Amino acid sequence: MKLVDIAEFYSDQGGGVRTYIHQKLAAAKEAGHDCLIIAPGPETREEEREGGRIQWVEAPPIPLDKRYHLFWKADEIHRILDREQPDVIEGSSPWRGGWIAASWPGNKGSKAVKSFFFHQDPVAVYPHTFLDGLFGIETIDRMFFWFWAYLRKLARSFDTTIVAGDWLGERLKKFGIGNAHAIPLGIDGTAFSPERKSEGLRRELLEKCGITDPDSRLFVTVSRHHPEKRIGCMIKAIDRVNRIRPAGLYIIGDGPTRRSVDRQAGKYRGSFVAGFEKDRDKLAQILASADGMLHGSAAETYGLVIAEGLCAGLPLVVPSIGGAADLAEPGYAELYRAGDSTDCADALQRLLLRDPEDMHKAALEAAGRKVITPLEHFRQLFQYYETLIKKKNGQKEND
Question: What is the dihedral of CA 301, 54, 379, 304, to 10 degrees?
């Protein structure tokens, strides 16, 4: 099978999408598939990567984050597709990249399967983030009826829409997008074992948060610094908790709102901004040494860092909607209203009153049930695509 992914949100300086793309290339090679990633960049060139190929296409940068670029001209990408003649085309963006994938007419009698991979919910990322304090989620969704009409039109141009969970498929179905197929994402859970725990490291991280009491609880959060991640809400919530009992929040990540995050951490008690942690081994040690994971984003389609936290046995405090909430269960998690620092602080207080060992055991048990490996994710994805290829070519599944 030849797969071409038109990946508009890929950047070598990126986070989750970059990791996912590299895993896809490696998994495709292992499965014997040919995988090409078409990504926007500062210049047009092709390079080998992770057992596959990345074809960069010159495109303008995003003004707010110049690490990323957006496709503009379709002709060059269509010429690449003409050359490659893929069996499957993935459109991994609801914007220009998605329409470029959808509009390729094919040639030489191509019957390529077209798959729309719904990596990001733009209404959740921006309108929910900035407006839910004024209108509420359901009202905002209705206000953006025009976007759902736009998305329905785009999705109809594809044979399938891939989502990371049944909950997201139901959300899209509510807005008339009925071709969604859920395939959960995966992580390397073995790297995030609770056996990596270090009491010395835990105390060191607490001290960086300005907490000197070694019996205090340490929370960790991992995310890109962007408004949708609502890092300010978490900083304020930890400050509220510190009015009652000491607790620390160790913040891992970087991004376009880093200066704002730094200012807020300096203004409120109990938080430390560590920046991006590129050492995955060190990250695993930090997670294993924390007492819980706090999360702010309600816009993610799947909570990758939440899954990593579960594998480390961490109890969770997460928003009540989104990919993080989909991985939360009462045995080890407390939910709060997204963006509400008071409600977040209350959820933290509830968690602090519960038995840590019971929650730790429940989190590890849930990790065994809920979290799959990247290879398993791609095994399911490639198998699904092979089924669609046979169907589109008029073959029976057992042919």
Answer: -30
